[in-house]
Amino acid sequence: MTPGWSGQKSSNGRPIRLLLAGGGHAHLGVLKSWIARPPHGIETSLITSERYLIYSGMVPAWITDPAAAEDLRIDLVSLADRAGIDCIIGSVVGMDANQREVVLNNGERLSFDLLSIATGGEIDTSTLADLGPRLLPVRPMPDLVRRWPLVRDTATRTPGFRVAVVGGGAAGVELALAISSTLAGSCAAPVMLVSDTEALLPGHSSRARRLAQERLAHAGVELVEGHASATPDGLLLDSGRRIPAGCVVAATGTRAPRWLRNSGLQLDGQGFVSVGPDLRSQSHPHVFAAGDIASWRDRRGGRTVARSGVHAVHMGPVLAENLRRTLRDAGARLRVYRPRRRSLYLLSTGDSRAILSWGSVAMAGRWAQRLKNHIDRRFVREWARLGSGAKGMAWSN
Ligand SMILES: Cc1cc2nc3c(=O)[nH]c(=O)nc-3n(C[C@H](O)[C@H](O)[C@H](O)COP(=O)(O)OP(=O)(O)OC[C@H]3O[C@@H](n4cnc5c(N)ncnc54)[C@H](O)[C@@H]3O)c2cc1C
């Protein structure tokens, strides 16, 4: 199946329609590229469930310091506006890649010639759903940000109120430490971190793990190993232990959205969109995907890249360039996304310090948190400047 256009017209003579589904980090790269050089004769629309993209790197800092809210979100509407892109606030709930159609939550059907997907993933809360209102999943992140202040206020006012975080990955560790720091000195019970992975921080070095464990112990966060399921008043571990909790924060890893299942797209074993190193769908050349939604393999089909904001951001310029080339010539040669062998991660530990984790290197200190603040704040503020029309974007296509 090949894209059906030549030049800037589709086969039926109307302008080519490009749909950007989801306001994910990779689409920031497309917005920036379109602002710098708007493509002629292309109708581009961005569909995003929320006006603001929440920048996850800033969430732990915002939990410990609500004043950080101004650096928490990126305004997609103003960026789309500057890029001359029509911004539709709505959620994609279905898609037919063969018919080139996307379905929105209001029932509207949008056709496309070229589609790019950056909706991110969902949180797998299947074993925790029975918690009802006590469950606070980390995604959708805008919901987390809307609901957390009330949980915090309730926790600080209610003697023995326990927050349990489920998930031993980087997000779970950062959130447990940030929440523990915020609730310290209140009448809330100590925060608990429940992890069913053999070791904390999978994918990080043993030294990074040790540093995280030391920090959790120092902060009084109880680390519990086991697989958790929901009870009406908290968690039940596979060991039989019950953990009453007023709020369970689910940081249980990313799963693929269900709406992809009937899309016709080739998906990997876990339901994510299979793309090549050029971020193009393995089955449909007129579909691209990037960020957490994409399952990426290298040229030899061997390596997949970890789901992280770092990759989602770095995929942006490659995605933008490949969309541009495909719009000009459906059969154009495309750029390849080459992930760095090691990515730099800075994990906040809730005490004005952070753990720097880079391959086998791991260090902790206040300087690491200052570096994280600098990188994260600069990132969000540069998008704000671009959205407002001010000059000064640091990274280029
Ligand atoms: C607490 C926390 C801290 C983290 N810290 C880091 C970190 O420091 N470094 C790092 O590299 N990674 C970090 N991560 C991981 C990182 O958040 C993800 O890997 C990253 O957000 C993936 O980016 P994305 O653009 O693919 O998706 P997302 O960031 O999830 O963006 C998806 C966007 O699409 C929109 N959307 C979603 N579904 C739909 C739909 N159906 N229709 C329309 N729009 C939709 C959403 O509103 C959102 O704007 C952290 C994660 C968490 C939970």
TrEMBL record:
InterPro entries noted in UniProt: FAD/NAD-bd_sf (IPR036188), FAD/NAD-binding_dom (IPR023753), NADH-Q_oxidoreductase (IPR051169)
Q: Is Protein transport tagged as a keyword?
A: no
Q: Which Pfam families match?
A: Pyr_redox_2 (PF07992)
Q: Which GO terms describe its molecular function?
A: NAD(P)H dehydrogenase (quinone) activity
Q: Which UniProt keywords apply?
A: FAD, Flavoprotein, Oxidoreductase
Tell me which Gene Ontology terms the entry assigns under biological process.
aerobic electron transport chain
Source organism superkingdom: Bacteria
What this protein needs as a cofactor is: FAD
Residue stretches making up the FAD/NAD(P)-binding domain? 22-306
- Protein's name according to its UniProt entry: FAD-dependent oxidoreductase
* Native species: Novosphingobium olei
What lineage is this protein's organism placed in? Bacteria, Pseudomonadati, Pseudomonadota, Alphaproteobacteria, Sphingomonadales
